[in-house]
Amino acid sequence: MPAPAIALTPPPGPAHGPPALAVRDLTLSHGGQVAVRGLSGCFAPGSLTAVVGPNGAGKTTLLQALAGLHRPAAGTVSLSHPARIALLPQAATLDRGFPIACLDVVELGHWSRLGPFRRVTPALRQRSRAALAAVGLEGHERRPIGSLSGGQMQRLLFARLLVQDAPVILLDEPFNAVDARTLADLLSLLRRWHGEGRTVVAVLHDLDLVRHAFPETLLLACDCLGWGATAEVLTPANRRRARMARDWWAGEPWADDHGADDHGAGARWTDASWPGAPRPGAPRPGAPRPDASWPDTPWPGAPWPDAPWPDDRRAGDHGAGDRRPTGPAMPGMPAPPRADAAGRPHHLT
Amino acid sequence: MHDLLFAPFADFGFLRRALAGCLALSVSAAPLGVFLVLRRMSLTADVMAHGVLPGVAAGFLLFGLSVPAMGIGGLLAGLAVALGAGALSRATGGREDASLAALYLVALAAGVAMVSWRGGAVELTQLLFGSVLGVDDQALLLMAGAATVTLPALAFAWRPLVLECFDPGFAASVGARGGAWHLLFLALVVLNVVAALQALGTLMAVGLMMLPAIAARHWGRSVGAIAAAAAGIAALASAAGLLLSYHADLPSGPAVVLTAGALWAASALLGPVDGVLARRRRRAGRDTGPEGGDGGWETDPTPGARPGVPPGRPSR
C-alpha cells in the first residue's frame, strides 16, 4: 500500500548510549490491513512513554512488534537488549479459571533463568514471594487465580513483571478495569521502574493519567501523529487529528473490524473530555475515578496528586473490598497522608 | 461379590490383558486429556480419533487385523489430520473448528468405507467400538508402550505445556517456543488414541482421555492434582467398565466410556471444586454467615484477617 511515511523523531531524552528500542519505517499489518504505517523513532533508555490513539490505531500491534511477536510488513525494530523484554499482554486474554496458584504464576517470570527444566531455587522462590508482597498480595501464594478480583489479577501480573527484571517493559493497557487503589499502587511500581532506569512503554486510554504520569507520549492513529514530550504531543489539535483519523477509518466499509486491539474500548477514547467530544462529562466506563479528582497539572515537576482516599494500607484490604472506596473520593477534600507512593518496598530489583 | 468383581479377571486371560492395557492408558491418556481441556481442545481429540480411522483401515486392508500395521497407519493419519486442520484453516482463512469438523467427517466416512470394502460387520464393529477380545499381546504391548513413552515425555514438557496453556502470549514473549511443545503434545495425543483403538474402538478411543479429565476438574485446584485425579478416575472407569462389558455383554468401548460418564456426572454433582452441591452449600453459607461456607475462596479473600499481620502495617 503506497503511503507517505510520516516520521517524527522524538526529542533526544536523557539518553546516553544507544536507544533501548528503535523503530525505522516500521509498517505493521493484520491480514492485509495496515495497522501501523511508516513509524520511525526510538524509545530512549530509561524513558517512560505512553502510547495512545483511537481504536484500531495499531497500539497493541506495535507493542507486539516491539516484543518481537509480530513480524513487521516493512521496516525494522532494533533492540539494544535482545530478548530482555517483558511484555504484559491485555488482561482479558487470560483464562481466569485456569487451575494455577498465584505463586506459580509469579514464578513463570523466572523463565529466562530457568527455562523449561531447571529447578526453582530457594533464592528464586524468595524473590517470587517478595514480588508478591511488593504488589500487596502477601499471603496469596497458594490461592488459585480464579479467586482473585480484577485488580488483584493485575497486581499478580505486575509481580511477574517484577520477577522478570527486564530492562525494557511493555505494558498493554495495564490499568484496564482496576480499582483506584490498585491503580495507584501499580503506578508507583511503574515509577519505581522508571527511577531504576528501565525503559517502559505502556498502551493507555486514559489521557489524564498519561498527562500526569508519563513524560513522553506516542500518539498513534495508524500514522504517527506525534512522539515526544507529553505536553507537546497531547495538544487539542493533535487529538482532533487523531479523532479524525479514527473517524476516517471507521467510515471505511472494509475497516469495520480493523485491527485486533482495543476490543470494545471505544467509549473511553471518545468520552475523554476533548473539545468536540460527543458526550462531554459523561462518566467513562471503566474509568477508575472521576476526572475531577485529577488536578490538571502539567507534567514536568508535577507530583502525583495525593490520593483522595484514606490510606489504610492493611495488607488484606484488597479482596472483597478491592473496589474503589467511593465515599471520601471527593474533589477538594484534603488528602490523607500517603505512605506508599514513594515508600514502596525497594528490596526487589 | 467375589464372582462379580474378581472372578472375571481371574478366570479369563483376555480380560486381564484388557484391564492391564486400560490401566496403562488411564495413567497416560487421562493427564493428556487434562491438557486438552485446559487448551480448549476437547473436541480436537475427538477429531483426531476419527482422523486415525483411514490410516487404520489402510493398515487393515493391506495386512489384515495386524496391530503394528494398523497402529502405524493410524499414527500417520492422526498426525496428518492434526497438522492438516491447522494448515488448512490458515491457508483458506476459515475457522479451525470448521476445518476440523469437515476433516473428521470425511475421515470417518472414508475409514468405514475402506473397512467395509474388504472386511465384514465384525471387523467394522471391532474397529469402531472396540473389543476386549481384540487386546492380544501385541495390542497390550502397544498400550503399555504408549504409556511408557507418554509419561516421561509429559513430565519433560510439563512446565512449557502449563505455561503455553495458561498464557500463550507470555510464553511467546519469553521465547518459550510454544510450537515445538505443541507438536510434541499432539504427537502424544495421537499415540494414545491409536493405542486405545483396540480396546475401546475408534469412536470411543478418546472417552478414556477426555471424560476423566473433565471430571477431574472438580477434584483439584492445580494442574498436577487434576491430572492425578484424572488418572485415578480413568483407572476406576477402566476396571468397572470392563466388568460391565463382561457381565452385560456390551462392547468394551461403550461400557468403559459409560462408566467414565457416570463418574463424570458424580464428580459434577459431588466434587468439592465447583460441584453442584459444593456451590449450593457455599451459596447457603454465604446467606447465613461467613462461617457457613466451605472455606471457598470467594468468601474469604482477606489475608489481612490472618493472625500476625497487624492492620496498617505497610507491606514490605
TrEMBL record, chain B:
Parts of the chain that traverse the membrane: 18-38, 69-88, 100-119, 139-158, 223-244, 256-277
Entry membrane topology: Multi-pass membrane protein
Keywords: Membrane, Transmembrane, Transmembrane helix, Transport
Any one of the GO BP annotations: transmembrane transport
Chain intervals with Low complexity compositional bias: 298-307
Domain of life per record: Bacteria
Subcellular localization: Cell membrane; Membrane
GO CC annotations on file: ATP-binding cassette (ABC) transporter complex
Pfam families on file: ABC-3
Span list, region Disordered: 282-316
Family, similarity comment: Belongs to the ABC-3 integral membrane protein family.
Protein name: Metal ABC transporter permease
Organism expressing this protein natively: Roseomonas acroporae
Higher taxonomy: Bacteria, Pseudomonadati, Pseudomonadota, Alphaproteobacteria, Acetobacterales
